[in-house]
Amino acid sequence: METNAIQTVEDTKQYIVVKLGNEQYGIDIGYIDNIVRMQMITRVPKAQPYFKGVINLRGEIIPVMSIRVKLNLEEDQFTYATRIIIIKTNQQALIGIIVDEVKEVVTLSEVDVEKVAYDGNAKDEMANYLSGVGKMENELLSILNINTVIAEKTEKENG
Questions:
Q1: What are 24-77's pLDDT values in tens digits?
Q2: Which among 139, 145, 135 has a CA at the least distance from the CA of 23?
């Protein structure tokens, strides 16, 4: 019996559930370095529309982007619940992403997460930003592929 319990732990992942508008998204907790309250963002000239500027977090300058703008949602509405999630990328760089609200941490097993199928239509761009859809209780949770969401920053800046 105990070996089954260990096996189950290995097949699960933890996601932090965040709200963007009326939708809930999951971010793999392994990428999260910190969660901070909304603070003043210093604008950077000639940046992408989704790149909001930089913040100073304990002496470290961290770029901040709006996931809402990146995913072609309506502009950010800053409230008391708005947070900046500090993400550690594969390149070990830190980047902040603005979310409307941080809800909870959920643990999903691999069988509860369906991979996203690409079907070549106009919604494909959004599908690129998702790694799957998780089933939690009575709700669905879109799992963000955080590397794709924060990538392509420099790709379009030169054009």
A1: 999 999 999 999 999 999 999 998 889 999 999 999 999 999 999 988 888 888
A2: 139
| Count of structural domains within the chain | 1
Residue 154: HSE in the Cβ half-sphere, 13 Å Cα cutoff: 0
CATH number of the CATH domain containing 104: 2.40.50.180
pTM over 0.85: no
Indicate whether 39 belongs to any domain.
yes
In a domain, residue 159? The reply is no
Cβ atoms within 10 A of the Cβ of 20, count?
21
User: Does 51 map to a domain?
Assistant: yes
Output helix, strand, coil percentages for the chain, rounded to the nearest 5. Answer: 20, 45, 35
Domain annotation covers residue 154: no
Q: What is the DSSP string of 7-39?
A: HHHHTEEEEEEEEETTEEEEEEGGGEEEEEE--
**pLDDT tens profile 100-156:** 999 999 999 988 898 876 665 545 567 788 899 999 888 899 999 998 888 864 333
